[in-house]
């Protein structure tokens, strides 16, 4: 059975691909059950579009692949803590669990002064706060 560490290691490979293309080294995947539904790399520089963070790119693909806006049965993995922009999308699409490796202290959706991932002050139709897992180190 695949676990959080397995998926984060997969994200690390995607991050290397992003870095090789000149973007920030960020990789993200979305799973449903034990299946990868979407995977993506940071593409903000290459696409000249600040919204092309790896997490948002993965969410776009997951919504397209699953043909639904309800990702409440999904988990998102990323090499980096989702920023506030990505956190908004994660909450809007009701992703149930967020697993990340590196904290992003200034604009991170969990660790910054604007913790949208864990805030209860969100629209009432959004789901509960997702489970947050910060994998700082692992073997």
From TrEMBL:
SUPFAM superfamilies: Cytidine deaminase-like. Residues 2-114 form the CMP/dCMP-type deaminase domain. The keyword Zinc applies. One of its GO terms (molecular function) is hydrolase activity. The keyword Transferase does not apply. InterPro entries: APOBEC/CMP_deaminase_Zn-bd, CMP_dCMP_dom, Cytidine_deaminase-like. Pfam families: dCMP_cyt_deam_1. Keywords: Metal-binding, Zinc. PANTHER family: CYTOSINE DEAMINASE FAMILY MEMBER, TRNA(ADENINE(34)) DEAMINASE, CHLOROPLASTIC. This is Nucleoside deaminase. It comes from Ginsengibacter hankyongi.
